[in-house]
Amino acid sequence: MLNKILLAGVCLLCVVQTGLAQQPVEKKDSSQVEGPATVAPAEPISDSILVTVILKHQQNKNLPEIRRVLEAQGFWDIFPPQDARVVSWTIAMGLGHIIILEIPAGAERRLNLALENGAWGAFDTEIYLTYDYKSVWEDYIERREEAKEDRN
């Protein structure tokens, strides 16, 4: 379990901003903007949960084939759902997309349907309930350092 948490952390920290190759091709008509950067509301959602979605590249498909499947299924129109906020969206080379979403409590079905209807056939999907561990870790490190000082 710790290995999975560490792997996810390393992927999120080390592979930032490499996803441009996976973004949809922009349409010439600027009124039809697509892609993940345009769908997220700016404010946090009250009474919400964090979900990590991993879209693993199907290695029997190349990038143009994956894009064709995503476009044919309307992936960029339905994912992420309108009530979701994108917290982080990164690409891990050799793995795929690692997306952290904040969704309203009770919106799991809409998220699942968006993935089933839009991503299947292009990606293998994994979904994990997530929470932000950074503040817990920082508190622990601070208390650990104080304990070391007290022992000396």
Would you kindly provide a written description of the structure presented here, covering whatever features stand out?
With 152 residues, the chain is of the alpha+beta class. It has one domain (11-17, 39-151): Alpha-Beta Plaits, CATH 3.30.70. The protein has helices spanning 2-14, 63-72, 75-78, 108-118, 134-151; strands at 48-57, 85-92, 96-104, 123-130. The protein has a 4-stranded antiparallel sheet with strand order 2-3-1-4, with helices on both faces.
The share of residues in extended strands comes to 15-25%
Integer count of domains: 1
Structural class: alpha+beta
Report the CATH topology name.
Alpha-Beta Plaits
> Which regions are unreliable across 5 or more consecutive residues at pLDDT < 50?
1-42
Order of helices and strands: HEHHEEHEH
Helix tally equals 5
Q: On the 0-100 scale, what is the average pLDDT? A: 78
Name of the CATH first level: Alpha Beta
Question: For the largest beta sheet, what order do the strands appear in spatially?
Answer: 2-3-1-4
How many β strands by DSSP? 4
C-alpha end-to-end distance: 34 Å
Quaternary structure type: single chain
Q: What percentage of residues falls in helices of 4 or more residues?
A: 25-40%
Basic shape = elongated
Radius of gyration, whole Å: 18 Å
CATH arch. level architecture: 2-Layer Sandwich
Characterize the biggest β-sheet: 4 strands, antiparallel
Short description:
With 152 residues, the protein is α+β, with helices and mostly antiparallel strands. The protein contains 5 helices and 4 strands. The chain has a single domain, classed as Alpha-Beta Plaits.
